[in-house]
Queue: 2 jobs
Job 1
Amino acid sequence: MSHQRLINRKPSRALAAFLGALPFLMLFFVYQWGSDLRRQENPKDKLLPAFTEIGTAMNELALQPSARTGEYLFWQDTGSSLRRLSIGMGVAAALGLVLGLAIGALPLVGAPLSPLVTAISLIPPMAILPILFILFGLDELSKIMLIVIGVAPILIRDLCQRTKELPREQLVKAQTLGANSWQVIVRVLLPQITPRLLDAVRLSLGTAWLFLIAAEAIASSDGLGYRIFLVRRYMAMDVILPYVAWITLLAFCTDWLLLKLNQRLYPWYYANR
Amino acid sequence: MSLEKPLIHFRRVGKEYGSTVVLENINTRVKAGEFVTLVGTSGCGKSTFLKMLLGTEQPSSGSALFDGQPLAQEPGPDRGIVFQKYSVFPHLSVRDNVLVGLEFARSPWLGRLFGGARQTALAEVDHWLEAVGLTRASHQYPHELSGGMQQRLAIAQALIKRPRVLLLDEPFGALDPGIRKDMHQLLLKLWQEYQLTVFMVTHDLTEGFYLGTRLWVFDKTRHDTQAPERFGSTITFDLPLEKTGRSDLVAVESSLDESRRLAPAA
Ligand SMILES: Nc1ncnc2c1ncn2[C@@H]1O[C@H](COP(=O)(O)OP(=O)(O)O)[C@@H](O)[C@H]1O
Ligand SMILES: [Mg+2]
């Protein structure tokens, strides 16, 4: 037996992996058990479909072309959602980088823009979704705009903060090396802010998914959010549950990929932390 | 009065932050080639003095001339700086950290050199890396360097601009004693070889006596126990070190102890 305090006792790698997988396994079995239980009472139960039913439903959506359009709906939904998400996040990230850097680095830009960005970031984006539909129509643009409006202010404020947090000594040092304002921005600030941008994007991806699914639920003809809200009418849990799991998996993979990309591109950023 | 024009000439210079007087009545001249070490209790205004030379702070009163002109309102390439930390750019390799000073001057828009221009500049960079003993580390990043090597890099960075003065704010304060000795030798060698004018803040009195040609002690001459912010520090000792002896060190030490005793407990 170990005499260490609890706070000093760490699981081995194998044990940690097992402990990490355990809750998922338990969830899996609890679900199966609950599903069996309900179906013994009512074979037509829709709330907790068996895995075989989920498999059948997903086979139809992912591997069979739709009878009506000839498309593979699941992949079409995934493609549409990911396209909206990446365009929206791309625009938001570009705005965040340019404006965050400008506001953080140049007091004369910050003075007029900083209060405005703060005010915009306080508007609940869902409250202006109708305005977006009126302005940009019910097509792709309004969905992408919702993501941009929901995420860009967070990114701008965060990157402005990160810019201001860089040691002042570096700005002074650059000036003593003869840098002008532009050179300080492109050679000292920008390269150090980019990994922080990737961090901020990772953190705001959850928010972006929220706005994407909300917009798709309200006005769309495809997309992961659209499908979930469409089949809700038939209580088709055999579609909703795998879609939710799929969205979660996509979110996890994006986050992981961005982390690996950041570590690969900017090893110095991870050095002292 | 000497015929040689002083590089730095302060007359009745004072510095206040609001109602807090940090420095008062600073009168001094410094010629090119001097190595001035600045000592004094913590918070007495040594860094503030350096910041006025650097251009990140402006004097509140008096006249401060640099080469006959009023001190610049912002940092510039004629005044190099080494801080205790954060002096080097973490996202650039050792070589690029030094190269960037040349790139700023030679490439106004991109701040980057390519091809032949870059090769020419790199030859210069390598000269300075050799001068500070970093040749073998030239492709490493700052986080891979020891504290002493980072400070060597910061010095090379500053020197490639050939500044009129080199400002050092407790540059070796975070280093081990052994490493610090090496840095002393390096700094003295560079000072002689390139005829630098150096201002160096240190909290180590022995270091100040050993390195400088001239030692300044910053201290208050007047104390108000009720309102310590009423009076600022000034240069209470200005010792030409070539002629000085052990008795001066003892005198300065006891005077600093005295003012530490008078200062309100932090
Ligand atoms: N920006 C500032 N605003 C107000 N007070 C300051 C500022 N900068 C420095 N001070 C004060 O000036 C005094 C001298 O500071 P500093 O020059 O850093 O001391 P030293 O380098 O000798 O330890 C300190 O009491 C500090 O609190
Ligand atoms: Mg200081």
Job 2
Amino acid sequence: MPKYILDRRRFLRRTGQAVLGLTLGGQVAFFDPDRSWAIVLETLDQAAARALLAMTRTLFPHPALGDEYYAVVVEALDAEAGQDDAVRKLLQDGVARLDRARQLAFADLSPGTRTQVLREMEDEPFFQKVRSATVFHFYNNKLVWRHFGYEGSSWEFGGYLRRGFQDLGWLPDPPPEASPAPYFG
Amino acid sequence: MARFALDDDSVVVVIGSGAGGGTLANELCQQGIKVVLLEAGKRYTLDDFVNDEWEMFFKLSWLDKRIATGSWRIARDFPNLPAWICKTVGGTTVHWAGASLRFQPHEFRTKSVYGDIEGANLLDWPLDYDELAPYYAKAERKMGTTRTEDRPGLPGNNNFKVFYHGARRLGYKVVHTGRMSINSRPYDGRPACQQIGFCFQGCKIGAKWSTLYTEIPKAEATGRLDLRTEVQALRIEHDRSGRVTGVVYADAEGQQHFQRARAVCVACNAIETPRLLLNSASNMFPDGLANGSGQVGRNYMRHTTGSVYAVFPQPVRMYRGTTMAGIVTDESRHDPRRGFVGGYELETISLGVPFLAAFLEPGAWGRAYTRKLEQYTHMAGLWIVGEDMPQETNRITLHPEEKDRFGMPIPVVNFDDHPNDIAMREHAYRAGRALYEAAGAVEVYEVPPYPSTHNLGTCRMSVRPEDGVVDRYGRAHEIPNLFISDGSQFTTGGAENPTLTIVALAIRQAEHMVRLMSRGEL
Ligand SMILES: Cc1cc2nc3c(=O)[nH]c(=O)nc-3n(C[C@H](O)[C@H](O)[C@H](O)COP(=O)(O)OP(=O)(O)OC[C@H]3O[C@@H](n4cnc5c(N)ncnc54)[C@H](O)[C@@H]3O)c2cc1C
Ligand code: SF4
């Protein structure tokens, strides 16, 4: 089963909406027309996915990162909801409350209002669940690491021994008693 | 590898294959003793290690449910993860950073030196520095500790450079790349460190000492080690004379077995060790094995910790190279004029983006927080490790109802900071902040403690049986053939990372056991 559907021609539809849903052979695909990413929802519906996407973004906003990175979290929550009824209920009820909090759907609120809505539910299990899922799944994405300048796995390149573990140039080198010369073999 | 029969009562059963148990098992095997080593976790090889924080966390950590209670911040931030320790062959030495420091002489005599501290259950160790010194030397040689004997120090990375200059500008005197059980030169058949930078995830090349690829294969080579993996010890049994007879354990399928033993050594790390003793209560030992003093599970210590991360105008890239790359020892002295007894060390630390997002400010969200994370490449980090006060109410107990999949009650870890711990932590945060400001930091973040990595004191050594659980060799006061072989033995915690002391005590304990056996006393 495809996890990500990246075929632009098949799925791209320009509309005024930020995020689209589409039914494909019984499953609901959820995607962003501007960035040609999509996730397949197994359990949650489009409205829930849309609210959760807005929530993850409001929780950990990085303006330079597109929705596709946040969609990874929604996909993980959807998968968990499919395996665990308690999680499904927690998410569905939580989303319902998000969408009722003001007179508009949560995703249609301004970033400031969304933040306020979330602040009001900070102590609730639903909030905690989505927050911790976002911390885990969003920041555990190798593509997101690039944005932070984090280089990830290094052993396959021989570590940093010859690749800049001491390349900081804005301070003088400590004396050899404090920091002996490296051993290169 | 050897296989001994379940009814072979000439074997010593060691439970736990980490710093304490892995070392003890090897030392006994080298002396001709047959050992059955029970380990709850799986056996991995270097090929299984990846440079990925969460993947290795889930592979290596002890994730069975534990409950944190008390006023410590961990109970709020990580209510089911009070400790960050491993369940795998090699124990937490697979994960550890490698800092290998000796206790200072006065730290064996805290009751005498610090005096009476209200609420603290201080006690002098039943042994002193001079007695342990030769075993420290053996441990350092075994582990290839840098800056001991002729082993040079490691080269400092970028994180160290920042730390060094801040510390020196602040006037600290002893600042260097530390004593690390990481090879600065090839040693003991293992290569030199390549500055890979994932020390907490299992050293991919084995440059860092771990019992997984040192003690355990060496013990296996003697033909006297029977290592059983994915088995959890559930109960230690005894006979009518009050001597232990063996261990009931469950295998991966949940089948229970009973391994007979001439002696049992418990090295499950300081939460599981008392849990096992408490779960072994019987008519003869109604409060748990070896618990006549009521001290089993009490005096739980976890070091006064915290981290300081700072942001600089120019890049640092702290994650490149050894995770713990340097130390300031000036604050580790005992100097009550600072407003607390005991001392602390400052050591560099680094986390990758996945862990930093989880730990920089647990529970935080919003743009203010994500802005901090976006400064990742310009951050430097240090960790505080200081002596905390033993308190009777800081303790491990068995949950009255909740049980694990083998029916063993889950452990509850209760902890309150002592006022001395708080005063020390505040002092250390101020020091860490000043250090980074001296190096030119534009922002400084004080980060609360991670789940406990140093777990100590829950079966402490004492001269008198009423004050503790084991004697000066780790032998239970009440049961002559039961030993505690991990950090649970610590009478007090010292300011230093504990593993070198755990290993030194294990070497000494093995020697003592062999002596007892040769005299027919064990
Ligand atoms: C991230 C991190 C960094 C660290 N860095 C340092 C450092 O730089 N310097 C330092 O000195 N220390 C460091 N430590 C601490 C160090 O790892 C521990 O002090 C040390 O490993 C403890 O040794 P131990 O023998 O008590 O327990 P462990 O090494 O934890 O071994 C205990 C073993 O017992 C097994 N076990 C438990 N219960 C049972 C049971 N019922 N049946 C069978 N098996 C069981 C466990 O699975 C485990 O493998 C660090 C720890 C962490 C987590
Ligand atoms: S930095 Fe050195 S010790 Fe740490 S994982 Fe890399 S090679 Fe091993």
